[in-house]
Design goal:
One of its GO terms (biological process) is gluconeogenesis. It is a single chain. By secondary structure, the chain is mainly beta. The chain has one domain: Jelly Rolls, CATH 2.60.120.10. The strands form six sheets. Strands 5-6-7-15-10-13 form a six-stranded antiparallel beta sheet, with no helix packed on it. Strands 12-11-14 form a three-stranded antiparallel beta sheet, with no helix packed on it. A two-stranded antiparallel sheet has the order 1-2. Bound molecules: 6-O-phosphono-alpha-D-mannopyranose (M6P) and zinc ion. The site of 6-O-phosphono-alpha-D-mannopyranose has 11 residues, from strand 7 and strand 15.
Length: 185
């Protein structure tokens, strides 16, 4: 809507989620994360319709546009499969030198990173924490708390998602609850 060339905003941050006409929402159920978790027996006993995370995204340009930016807010619910914390699928970028920012909004998490040599490291996420994810580094987030974890992301519109590499090779280390302590194994 326009009044004298002053436009009203069409996308808002509300309750840690993006809202507005152009916001796209997606949901990942436990059943969508079949090969993500290590403990297959624990996985089989759980309700596959359980919502693990939801992403609301603002994609103001077409996918693959060079020079554009996308933004998303992810809400990752608390829980574990066996001793492994609920986490996002994780991905490299298809255009693999593209970087990304993540930042924590609510809750407690761990950002797990892995380079192309399969070296893994991690960063604590908390409200206000800012994380620069360089190109050629795979990234996934685990919720290590008892409440929902909300984080936001900003990435280039020509980054794309390479899920296939993680689906076939996984991350070289897993974040497990070892006697109450989140530990990279
Ligand atoms: C962030 C961004 C998105 C990503 C989402 C969920 O919001 O990195 O690009 O889709 O997290 O992560 P994943 O795609 O790995 O499931
Ligand atoms: Zn990414």
């Amino acid at each position: 809507m326009e009044t004298n060339n002053i436009y009203v905003p069409e996308v808002f941050f509300t309750n840690s989620c993006l809202t507005g006409r152009e916001v796209v929402k997606s949901t990942r159920l436990l059943g969508d994360l079949e090969d993500v978790f290590q403990d297959k027996e624990a996985f089989e006993l759980m309700n596959k319709d359980r919502i693990i995370y939801q992403v609301s995204s603002f994609l103001p340009v077409e996918e693959d546009t060079v020079g554009g930016l996308f933004m998303g807010i992810t809400t990752l619910y608390p829980g574990k499969v066996g001793q492994e914390f609920f986490m996002t699928k994780g991905h490299f970028h298809l255009n693999n030198d593209r970087a990304e920012f993540y930042w924590g909004i609510e809750g407690e998490g761990i950002l797990i990173l892995m380079n192309e040599q399969r070296k893994v490291w991690a960063e604590r996420m908390c409200p206000g924490s800012l994380h620069y994810i360089p190109g050629k580094v795979a990234h996934r987030v685990a919720n290590i708390g008892y409440q929902k974890l909300v984080f936001s992301a900003c990435w280039p519109s020509d980054a794309g998602h390479d899920y296939a590499t993680i689906a076939s090779e996984g991350f070289a280390r897993r974040l497990m609850d070892v006697n109450g302590v989140p530990t990279l194994l």
